[in-house]
Amino acid sequence: MNKETGIPVNKKNIVLIGFMGVGKTTVGQLIATKLGRDFIDIDQYIEEKYNMPIPQMFKEFGEQHFRQIEKETVIDICKNQHNKIVSLGGGAFQQAEIRQTCLTSSLVLLLDLSWNSWKERMDILVDNRPVLHNRTLDEIHELFQQRQLAYSKHHLKIRTDNQTPEEVADFIVKKLQHNNI
Ligand SMILES: Nc1ncnc2c1ncn2[C@@H]1O[C@H](COP(=O)(O)OP(=O)(O)O)[C@@H](O)[C@H]1O
Ligand SMILES: O=C(O)C1=C[C@@H](OP(=O)(O)O)[C@@H](O)[C@H](O)C1
Ligand SMILES: [Mg+2]
């Protein structure tokens, strides 16, 4: 039993964090399937609830509006749901309230990817990530580095360079099953 939350450790939500494109959505879904737990991807949840793709929400209402909805959604899920696998969007941990709520209620796993590996994946990411639009590679690198401070607050870091999503998910599942987290 966790002293602060009163939630048994094996019923805690598992929250995946990390930069855009590191594999949070893909790996989260795989872990959920392997553990037989429900999966919640915060971005997909918001898109369904507001019936609008995230890039359109950025375009029509602006990033601040999305960040407000993102904060309310993550906090609501962390406080009211248990035993879920939850993948956040890459910008969520920039918000102190999200960080605080996740770190006290859930097991926070950082998916870590080096900048060199990330760059190779960039082309397939750009279309659906408005944060990458109108930014040079140098500016994206700066954002990548700036965000590492928020990501440094986690319970476990998993290095994902040269690992398939399946391998990353298997590694996490083993850790969980052996109570190594
Ligand atoms: N470990 C991996 N190796 C190679 N490609 C990956 C890996 N994890 C994810 N991808 C690919 O990168 C893209 C972004 O993955 P996604 O799960 O949406 O990341 P995130 O949710 O962190 O933004 C997808 O096309 C996915 O197939
Ligand atoms: O890093 C960010 O600011 C964002 C990351 C995206 O999620 P993924 O990290 O799943 O791509 C999504 O939440 C939105 O486009 C903003
Ligand atoms: Mg995602």
TrEMBL record:
Top-level taxon: Bacteria
Major subcellular location class: cytoplasm
Gene Ontology, cellular component aspect: cytosol
Enzyme class: transferase
Matches recorded under CDD domains: SK (cd00464)
Organism, as annotated: Aneurinibacillus aneurinilyticus ATCC 12856
Enzyme Commission code(s) on record: 2.7.1.71
One matching Pfam family: SKI
Cofactor(s) demanded: Mg(2+)
Family per similarity comment: Belongs to the shikimate kinase family.
Subcellular location: Cytoplasm
Cofactor binding, per record: Binds 1 Mg(2+) ion per subunit.
Subunit structure: Monomer.
Residues that coordinate or bind Mg(2+): 25
GO MF entry, a single one: ATP binding
Known pathway: Metabolic intermediate biosynthesis; chorismate biosynthesis; chorismate from D-erythrose 4-phosphate and phosphoenolpyruvate: step 5/7
Residues the entry annotates as binding ATP: 21-26, 129, 163
UniProt function note: Catalyzes the specific phosphorylation of the 3-hydroxyl group of shikimic acid using ATP as a cosubstrate.
Protein name: Shikimate kinase
Catalytic activity: shikimate + ATP = 3-phosphoshikimate + ADP + H(+)
Keywords: Amino-acid biosynthesis, Aromatic amino acid biosynthesis, ATP-binding, Cytoplasm, Kinase, Magnesium, Metal-binding, Nucleotide-binding, Transferase
InterPro entries, sorted: P-loop_NTPase (IPR027417), Shikimate/glucono_kinase (IPR031322), Shikimate_kinase/TSH1 (IPR000623), Shikimate_kinase_CS (IPR023000)
Binding site for substrate: 43, 67, 90, 147
Keyword Cell cycle tagged: no
